[in-house]
User: Fold this.
Amino acid sequence: MEEMAIRFWENLVGRVGGPMTFRLILQPIMAAIFAVRSGLKDAKEGKPAYFWALFTDPVHRGDLLRDGWKAVGKVFIFAIIIDLVYQWIVFRWFYPGRAFWVAVALAFIPYLAIRGPVNRIARRRTSHKN
Assistant:
């Protein structure tokens, strides 16, 4: 397992100097934009922080996951496709598992990291105005 993690990290870092480096910046930015939009909507509707609610609200977990996928799914699919193109250019072969994990790193992690804090910040700002 440790070897897989090391290989994944080396592959991800190796992508920085290779072709299509723009996607390593563009895809997390797109995920962040969707996360901000969703976080502001959550704050407006009085919902709890997204990532926290995934773990603490088993009743609504399915709805939360569907909502998150709806918001970031296109960026995730795009990240997989772009990584497969990258793999073809560099390796002349496809590694779908690697593409999946790169997409997780570039789309889901930024989304999860940003949506909840945006919600909390927006709720604090609106509560101070009232």
